[in-house]
Amino acid sequence: MHTVPAVDAAHLPQLLKAMPKAELHMHIEGSLEPELIFALAQRNGVKLPYAGVEDLRRAYAFTDLQSFLDIYYAGASVLLYEQDFYDMGRAYLTRAAQDNVVHAEIFFDPQTHTQRGVGMETVINGLYRACRDAEIEQGISSALILSFLRHLSEEDAFATLEAALPLRDRFIGVGLDSSEVGNPPEKFARVFARCRELGLHLVAHAGEEGPPAYIWGALDVLHSERIDHGVQAARDEALMQRLVRDGVPLTVCPLSNLKLCVVSDLAQHNLPQLLEAGLKVTVNSDDPAYFGGYVNENYLQLFAATGMNSQQAWQLAVNSFDASFVTPQQRAHWMRQLEAVFARYAALA
Ligand code: HPA
Ligand code: ZN
């Protein structure tokens, strides 16, 4: 492994913020801040079951994944027009750029919208235009990943794929999210096989609340290239060895795990152990508007709680680029930026 010049612990928070990074696990609907939810509700004449921004924020006291998903889907109900999807995308990318995210691979949940009568092209075109304009105006690179809702049927996922295929050039892959337990990867074996034939990138949420068996299923049945969350892998030594052997990235979301009670305390988070075991771990925000922070806040709170160091920060940033679906040239370009930032902070001593 590349050894990096050590950065003094006193400068670690600044380093974590300044280092260029990729974000590979975030749901764009989970970036809707309460203020934007209410602004869109007013613009579109949508009635919400909350009195206002503060009332909505008070409801963000989650006990598990499902208690979050119920509110997350309610929040997304204000999205009706292409401009709404555009505004949501631009707001996230503007915020991510402030965290020195240079590349984002963004999940979107089309079924949450098409079920309400919103057109597939409305969703994809709004988000795609946001990505393109953010690249031009802010220099941040991004790509879209269409995520199937696993609480719905495989047939529904097939219909969603069919509806999205005319816009195939506007998303790079597919994912699998929503209620995990009781909806194993095997339920989506055929639709993922079809996506594989189509040359789409494949990722899946697995081992957030669900057992290691769901991670095995995501790998062996779905051929998932990355595992979203995957923190339950630590319960299965053979699985850990498999993930190391194949260099399968885990897109871990520390504040999400804390807010959804996957861990009771950030100091107890197993990310340092997963990294130490040689897994290609990355840090991500999942649903930043709901879980108390964008990606830098995830790095800062995790490092403060666990005592991780600058060498580990380097590895996480490198992993974020290694695990991304970009060209080797693009990766090399960001690696040079990363080296320059570390050299600058190491020189401060
Ligand atoms: N898990 C599953 N589904 C989701 C999540 C998550 O963390 N966030 C948004 N949809
Ligand atoms: Zn997620």
Overview in brief:
It is built from 17 helices and eight strands. The two termini are 23 Å apart.
Biggest sheet strand order reads 1-2-3-4-5-6-7-8
The CATH architecture name reads: Alpha-Beta Barrel
Helix residue percentage: 40-55%
Task: Tell me the number of structural domains.
Answer: 1
Which distinct ligands sit in these coordinates? hypoxanthine, zinc ion
Number of strands: 8
- Euclidean distance between termini CA atoms: 23 Å
Average per-residue pLDDT, rounded, comes to 97
CATH class: Alpha Beta
Count of alpha/pi helices: 17
- The share of residues in extended strands comes to 5-15%
**CATH T-level fold name:** TIM Barrel
CATH homologous superfamily grouping:
Metal-dependent hydrolases
Give the topology string: H per helix, E per strand: HEHHHHEHHEHEHEHEHEHHEHHHH
Secondary-structure-based class equals alpha/beta
**Low confidence ranges:** none
Cα radius of gyration in angstroms: 19 Å
The geometry reads as globular
Largest sheet: 8 strands, parallel
Pfam families: A_deaminase (PF00962)
EC number: 3.5.4.2
InterPro entries: A_deaminase_dom, ADE, Ado/ade_deaminase, Metal_Hydrolase
Catalytic activity: adenine + H2O + H(+) = hypoxanthine + NH4(+)
